[in-house]
Amino acid sequence: MQPTHRAGLRTIASFEAAKGILILLLGMGLLGLIHRDVERVGEQIVEHFHLSPSSRYPHIFLELTAKVTDGWLWAIALGSVVYACLRFAEAYGLWHGRRWAEWLAVVSGGIYVPFEAVELARKATLVRAASLVINLTVVGYMLLVLRFQGHSRAKP
């Protein structure tokens, strides 16, 4: 790994590890809802934030909590573990300058770009714009790293 890229790769690795930790914590939190009345928990959340249950998003949220099963919670928690492991593997590889991790960062970041662009076009918000800009920055940086390293490896 070129010393000039080390800081950038480690910054992205730290970001990916943080995403993995967050998703893992959310998945573990879902396991805490197993054998509980998830619909009642949803109602308490809506009440806590002083939201109107008849408003669009709180209503959708409450409809979803009414349909939650223990099997669904287990499946989402398992999915969060798989996703977190992918983020941790990418973080490890980027931290140690592994080429496979650089490609993984491009592919895993690039997958989201079209969806983020559509969502931003549908309704522009600061969060959506920031998400797209961050993702494009990471993907662009990783492509530059891959291109630079490809050129430096080709030279004798």
What would your notes on this structure say?
The chain has 156 residues and is mainly alpha-helical. The chain has one domain. Helices cover 83% and strands 0% of the residues. It contains 7 helices and no strands. The chain has helices at residues 3-31, 38-48, 56-67, 70-95, 99-110, 113-122, 126-154. Helix 4 packs across helix 5 (99-110) and helix 6 packs antiparallel against helix 7. The longest helix is centred in the first third of the chain and has 29 residues, at 3-31.
Task: List the main descriptive attributes of the protein structure presented here.
elongated, 0% strand, mainly alpha, 7 helices, 156 residues
Structure summarized in a few sentences:
With 156 residues, the chain is mainly α.
Fraction in beta strands: under 5%
Structural class, from helix and strand content?
A: mainly alpha
- Give the helix tally: 7
Rg result: 20 Å
Point out poorly predicted stretches: none
For the residues shown, what is the average pLDDT? 91
Give the count of structural domains. 1
Number of strands: 0
The coarse silhouette is elongated
Report how far the terminal alpha carbons are from each other. 17 Å
State the share of residues found in helices, binned by percent: over 70%
Biggest sheet descriptor: none
H-E order: HHHHHHH
